[in-house]
Amino acid sequence: MKTIAAAPFALGSLTDVEAYAQSLPASERMPALFLGHGSPMNAIEENEFVKKFREVEKSIATPKAILCISAHWFTQGTKVTAMEMPQTIHDFGGFPRELYDVQYPAPGHPELAAQTGKLLAPTTVELDQKWGLDHGAWSVIKHLYPNADIPVVQLSVDRTQPPEYHYQLGRKLDSLRDRGILIIGSGNIVHNLRTLDGRNLDKVNHGFDWAFEAQAFVNQYIVSGNHQPLLEYQRQGRAIQMSVPTPEHYLPLLYILGMRHQQQDVSLFNDKLVGGSISMTSVKIV
After folding, report:
1. CATH topology (fold) of 2-285
2. Does the pLDDT at position 11 exceed 50?
3. Where are the transmembrane segments (predicted)?
């Protein structure tokens, strides 16, 4: 696979990133979104969560393209989809045939993939031709843009790197928002399938005590702008440990939080628990 590695600069320094971004066509600044995607069934069900996704789309300008960081592309190293037409990946099992029949034929954007690789220097970014759009991406994006007419590129989450690394990559990607790119992180802040209460999946805002505690803890620091405790989530006690037993659904949030500047507004929506141990909490930064 082709890789991109640009001249190195200190992690967290935006000087070279901003200089490169200035060479890209300017556009209206886009928000950054973290979307709690929950069950794959949200792709085909009509509920309050997908209705809110559509409401959010109505409040923002039409993007030139979408860059999505999905929990379901958890890789060794950093990769970005660079094909002209990404496939729709049904990366789940045991669901109705109707869900497997869903196709989301959004075009890719090889140029954006290459630009992303340059912005993330000194990280080596592999231009991937095999992956496509997994359900962490298409199950939510299809509610925002049902016509599949906005190009979509996916960025993988490097499982070998610590939280601070992902947060800093988000900082570097932020400049794309001034170029008409909508950046979406897709995961779930509270995500523990081992404790899922399958008998009460239809109950909205049904959660275990530790899940509500973790939800309140994370929300507090998202809104305050003090992100350090969220970067150090592994030190934050039992409620967070139960809510984030593995990091893949949590780390996409850190990319989006890395894009927040002090003067920017942040809001929460879909801030409810389902199945006892999954939060649909979503974040909008403008």
Report:
1. Protocatechuate 4,5-dioxygenase; Chain B (3.40.830)
2. no
3. none
